[in-house]
């Protein structure tokens, strides 16, 4: 008798944990196939530390095959889904194509950069969604400092030493906080630079970390102010050019570095399915099933999951929710085959951690606000606990960073053309991630 096949599309927080849990629950009674463009699970919350040179990129890339031995991993990017025929077509990295049939489908394709119609942003800003962007940003920062050091023109020197981050959510705040420490360190390695690199963090909101506990916002603001990061709230970018940005308060800021962290939107793959969506996320019931399609489930950023702890709302796009939804989807798929009973998704937020670099962090485990070293210990402990692999290597990098100087070199492995902001645009059939 052939085993039923469960196809999971996307190996992020939701898909990875769905596959892992299902392998444990099914014990060989189902074939579990995981389709993902890369052969690793990317631990996104530590991406800013890769850009800042604290962590090597492979540390946050957990190999799929090695950590999911009972799962068949297929490398490819889904580009068409035939719901009636129960088939998913995909592009392979070498431009080949393949197709997979399924008995149960889990859509866990996550989210992509959110684009806003601001002149020049698509051409001149860089997003921050994956390893290529983090590696590019790392090299770009080093390159700007090196070019500034030899620039004859003081205006060019100043522009190259100005870094503008748009979006003061957890991603933008961490990028700016880690970035300022990184460029301070680079400045000590380039004594002829002659000026302190300037970082600006811009948001339309009235506080940093607007989506989190206000006490965490206060902690982050205190740390950023103490480091000299210019926090500009209640404003946005009106226009971007190759030489700088114009802000909504009328100021022009000469810069060669615009990092776009204004948030994310669901992956465009879900748009084309003809299924109901909410804010672009695939509408599911509290059991994570797609209404009218009992064999299709969705979870994580790509899914609009009713938040039973906040009636009328959907769960926010966080790793915590994605991971727990992935685990529950595994349980409910097993139930759909007659093993156990379906359970609704109900999860109370356990708090959040934001690493601000150096000895600083803002955390609220179980809603107890922490700052300074206690927050840092909780933040790092949480990440080590939450990572599905590579823990010793991450710990070793943190130790090295605390005791040695960061190597300020650019390897130039990711050219700017490979990480355009518009790589999230729906019309692009295959996206470089
Ligand atoms: C820089 C950064 C920092 C963050 N920090 C935090 C944090 O500190 N705390 C927190 O809670 N959240 C954080 N988040 C948000 C959190 O990472 C997301 O909410 C979480 O990753 C969502 O999990 P997911 O599985 O839905 O999507 P993802 O983790 O994004 O995974 C989606 C997967 O699907 C794959 N995929 C996409 N399209 C296709 C396709 N067509 N075919 C096959 N596979 C596909 C992707 O390559 C990826 O592997 C951060 C996000 C970013 C970008």
TrEMBL record:
A family per Pfam: Pyr_redox_2
Catalytic EC class: oxidoreductase
Keywords: FAD, Flavoprotein, NAD, Oxidoreductase
Domain FAD/NAD(P)-binding: 5-326
UniProt EC number: 1.6.5.-
GO-annotated molecular function: oxidoreductase activity
Gene3D superfamilies, A to Z: 3.50.50.100
Protein family (similarity comment): Belongs to the NADH dehydrogenase family.
Protein name: NAD(P)/FAD-dependent oxidoreductase
Lineage: Bacteria, Bacillati, Actinomycetota, Actinomycetes, Micromonosporales
């Amino acid at each position: 008798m052939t085993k039923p096949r469960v196809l999971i599309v996307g190996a992020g927080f939701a898909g990875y944990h769905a596959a892992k849990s299902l392998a444990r629950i099914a014990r060989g009674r189902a074939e579990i196939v995981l389709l993902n463009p890369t052969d690793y699970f990317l631990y996104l919350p530590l991406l800013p530390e890769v850009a800042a040179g604290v962590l090597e990129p492979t540390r946050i890339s957990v190999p799929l095959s090695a950590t999911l031995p009972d799962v068949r991993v297929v490398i490819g990017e889904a580009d068409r889904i035939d719901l009636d025929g129960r088939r998913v077509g995909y592009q392979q990295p070498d431009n080949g194509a393949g197709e997979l049939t399924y008995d149960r489908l889990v859509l866990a394709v996550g989210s992509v950069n959110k684009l806003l119609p601001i002149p020049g942003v698509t051409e001149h800003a860089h997003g921050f969604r994956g390893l290529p962007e983090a590696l590019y940003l790392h090299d770009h920062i080093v390159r700007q400092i090196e070019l500034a050091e030899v620039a004859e023109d003081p205006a060019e020197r100043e522009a190259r030493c100005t870094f503008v981050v748009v979006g003061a959510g957890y991603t933008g705040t961490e990028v700016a906080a880690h970035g300022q420490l990184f460029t301070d360190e680079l400045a000590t390695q380039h004594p002829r630079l002659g000026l302190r690199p300037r970082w600006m963090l811009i948001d339309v909101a009235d506080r940093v970390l607007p989506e989190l506990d206000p006490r965490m916002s206060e902690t982050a603001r205190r740390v950023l102010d103490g480091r000299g990061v210019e926090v500009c709230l209640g404003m946005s970018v009106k226009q971007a050019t190759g030489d700088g940005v114009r802000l909504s308060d009328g100021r022009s800021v000469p810069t060669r570095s615009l990092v776009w962290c204004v948030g994310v939107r669901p992956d465009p793959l879900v748009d084309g399915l003809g299924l109901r969506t909410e804010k672009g996320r695939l509408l599911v019931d509290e059991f994570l099933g797609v209404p009218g399609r009992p064999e299709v489930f969705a979870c994580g950023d790509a899914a609009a999951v009713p938040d039973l702890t906040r009636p009328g709302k959907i769960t926010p796009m966080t790793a915590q929710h994605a991971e727990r939804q992935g685990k529950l989807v595994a349980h409910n798929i097993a139930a759909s085959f007659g093993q156990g009973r379906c359970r609704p998704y109900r999860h109370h937020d356990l708090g959040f951690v934001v690493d601000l670099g150096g000895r600083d962090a803002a955390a609220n485990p179980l809603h107890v606000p922490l700052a300074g070293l206690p927050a840092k210990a909780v933040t790092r402990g949480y990440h080590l606990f939450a990572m599905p692999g590579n823990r010793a290597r991450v710990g070793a990098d943190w130790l090295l960073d605390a005791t040695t100087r960061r190597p300020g070199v650019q390897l130039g492995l990711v050219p700017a053309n490979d990480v355009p902001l518009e790589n999230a645009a729906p019309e692009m059939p295959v996206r470089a991630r």
